[in-house]
Amino acid sequence: ETYTSMLSIHQALSTERELLRFLHTYLEEEAKRLEDLRRFYRKIQALHQGAGSTVVNPLLAYTLIKRLQSDWLNVVYSMEASENAQALKNGYQRLEEELPIFEDLEGAARGVMRLQDVYSLSVKGLAKGKFQRVSNAPLPDVYNPSQDFSLSADDCFHIGKVAYDMEDYYHSILWLEEAVSLFRVSYGSWNTEDEGSLEDALDHLAFSYFKAGNISHALSLSQEFLHYDPSNKRMVRNVLKYEKLLLVNPESGEEGGSLQRPNVTQLETRDIYEKLCQTLGSQPSQYQQQHLYCSYETNGTPFLMLQPLKREIVHQQPHIALYHDFVSDAEAERIKELAAPRLQRSVVASGEKQQKADYRISKSAWLKDTLDPAIVALDRRVAALTGLNTQPPYAEYLQVVNYGLGGHYEPHFDHATSRKSPLYRMKSGNRIATLMVYLSLVEAGGSTAFIYANLSIPAVKNAALFWWNLRRNGDGDDDTLHAGCPVLAGDKWVANKWFHEHGQEFRRPCGTSPED
Ligand SMILES: O=C(O)CCC(=O)C(=O)O
Ligand SMILES: [Fe+2]
Predict the structure, then answer these.
(1) CATH: 3.50.50.60, 1.25.40.10, 3.30.465.10, 2.60.40.420. Which one for 102-258?
(2) Which of 243, 412, 446, 508 has the most CB atoms within 10 Å of its CB?
(3) Is the CB of residue 494 below 6 angstroms from any atom belonging to ligand 1?
(4) Ligand with minimal distance to 401 CA
(5) Which of the four CATH numbers 2.60.120.620, 1.25.40.180, 2.102.10.10, 3.30.70.270 does domain 270-500 have?
(6) Which residue lies with its CA nearest to atom 10 of ligand 1?
(7) In this prediction, does ipTM exceed 0.95?
(8) Over the stretch 190-239, which tens digit does the pLDDT of each residue have?
(9) What confidence tens digit (pLDDT) does each residue in 355-372 have?
(10) C-alpha of residue 166 to centroid of ligand 1, in Å
(11) Chain-centre distance of CA 402, in angstroms?
(12) Which residues are found with C-beta within 5 Å of the ion, ligand 2?
């Protein structure tokens, strides 16, 4: 899977660089071949111009015969063109294993649509390479790429078609509209790399409008299609059908405009989740409140005397604290380096099983502390920070996560909400607390949103976020519902350390009050 982690996407970049090298060689060889053909052409043309209509010179006569018997045959049946093409194909085939598959393209297109939705971005803007908000008020762009880049008609067509194939006509209409208008501009000029055409885009867009109940749009697009391809019987039938429908119900024109976004998993919290993501983790106004403050902490352990923790309380009830500079740049790099070769598509608990899910798009790796001294050192600091037992089975191994294109983790609890959850397989109770370390700087998006606490924390590189998932009486704290917002731009890495209830009895004593 390419699209589920930025690391794989980086690897895809070097795959394409290799393809680019093959194409470069091909172009050079073909240029040489054509240059040689041009030389041959010019040579013969010069002879014909000099000779007039007779051949007096016996040498000319000889070479004419030789050319017609042999030279032209060699030119016309030259193998060079196909040899060059074959070399290009061989290069491609050697890389074929590494190339993304259709599911990757689908996942990538869905990632773009997710960014469009969560950050409320205009499709017109995206097609032009701009990250503009859909809004009446003039808002600054949520992200300014350093390099200008825009999408082609065919790029938009593919996104529209992914939506179309999922029967998601809300997105298919937006993206195919863009594809149609771009294809119209370039009509008549063909790009070798394109899969779609104006006709294809019109066809899919017309049908999307029909499914959305906007018959008059479906009709006019189908008529435009027939203008380009008048003999298409299916489209002729569609036009007749739409005309008939409009005759019966002339009103069925404008309903398509109010098409709703398709349902996502967490519809109840969607609005608040997206609002929190859209702040891009900017500091909320509550920071002026008295009970939110910064302090140096040693937790009474000599280990932290020389370098106290820099704690920022970002929320109370649930208690959420951000520890700045918890790891160094070098440590963060080392942890990512250790995780990189071990990354696999992240899973979520579903009933008694673990499985892939669209609502968590990332790859992750579990790192044992015996793997490397860096993990041992980190574990010691984690223990000093939390005062908790970090050893299995009282805590899980370190989970390192790398998000992908539009990678996210929709609102969820880290603790189990059902006795059947696979989290209980360690036989050490539920997940009592989470410590999450941000291992990278994220250009835009990717903040951590706490839905009910109504706050989102930006991915502050090298900082660690701590919160209790369970109340002192062992109940799950519903207020800890949280999410990793889609990564809008950049590469997001986090490391999770999850602590279980057992082994912490004297470190975090139980309580009976449901409030604690
Ligand atoms: O990436 C984030 O900001 C949140 C990740 C998270 O909640 C998780 O991995 O459980
Ligand atoms: Fe989580």
Answers:
(1) 1.25.40.10
(2) 446
(3) yes
(4) 1
(5) 2.60.120.620
(6) 414
(7) yes
(8) 899 999 999 999 999 999 999 999 999 999 999 999 999 999 999 999 99
(9) 999 999 999 999 998 999
(10) 27
(11) 12
(12) 414
